[in-house]
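Narrative progress, year one. The postdoctoral researcher (J.K.) led the effort to move from monomer predictions toward full complexes, under supervision of the PI. The following entry was the first complex the group processed end to end, covering 226 residues in total.
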Amino acid sequence: DADVTQTPRNRITKTGKRIMLECSQTKGHDRMYWYRQDPGLGLRLIYYSFDVKDINKGEISDGYSVSRQAQAKFSLSLESAIPNQTALYFCATSPGGSDEQFFGPGTRLTVL
Amino acid sequence: GESVGLHLPTLSVQEGDNSIINCAYSNSASDYFIWYKQESGKGPQFIIDIRSNMDKRQGQRVTVLLNKTVKHLSLQIAATQPGDSAVYFCAENRGGGSNYKLTFGKGTLLTVNP
């Protein structure tokens, strides 16, 4: 969905490096989410935010941090990347009063 | 040992046949369910959703059935086309109400043979 963009789309990095993944949306949605997808494991929630300055941990938040700088932007950071953080990362947004989530195209992260 | 989660359930159908993809859920408090389609290299895309006060909902060529008694959800695709080949995920709002978080299943890989 072009209304939810993620940068970069692909990234290869080394163990111990700090990495930031960016998500931007033009949908005007209040709620934003970061998921991780591993082969055969579906999507798992890392962090979510229901408004600017609202940050909540998901089921697998260890090793990650987030920042909600504005309604339209939600960034995910890996402070010190490790190989088992190699995965596809998806950002999603959701409008107020709805459970439906709209996904970005994903970022493929490889940690060597 | 068991390789849990490394292999997706798969469904292979012939073009033109109907497809049925199943999903079991465990939380009786879940009040919202949604199906997503994910094509290779793309993010999940909404297909259809259903609330727990309904048993069936139809869209264009797709139908979702909800059986709350056995906690089972299914997605039916009529006249399956090659473009339907993708991984299909069910997701549920386990907390209900204003929880606004989705829990995703592991997915089913649908392959449509021409």
